[in-house]
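Fold this sequence, please.
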Amino acid sequence: MESFLKLGFFSMADKVTDALGGSFPYILTGAVIVAIWIYFLFRKSKRYDNFSKYLNDVLNFRVMLTGGLAKILYIALTLVLLIVGIVAMFAANFLVGFIGTVILEIVLRVLFELAMEFFSIQ
């Protein structure tokens, strides 16, 4: 049983952690910065003439902020999973790292789609 566990993700986690070293906080910070940039680059929203009209809409709950925050978080986590997956492919086992990255990306997408459905129920 122990040799079976060493073939998969359990032995891979130690190798990936050693390969990343102490760089994970920098990867996460960079992913959040890139996610915010991508979100504001591609968002479609109502244009406001001045800040006071926008602030009035936010304070009266005509504009929901959690949808935007969820999108930024999704982009950041996708980037982090992709970077960690690439490290896992080359530091440990290429096939297991690739399959794990694809499966985790799909699971992440489904979870965030469910969260966005909960946000859209009014």
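The chain has six helices and no strands. Residues 58 and 65 are 8 Å apart (CA to CA).
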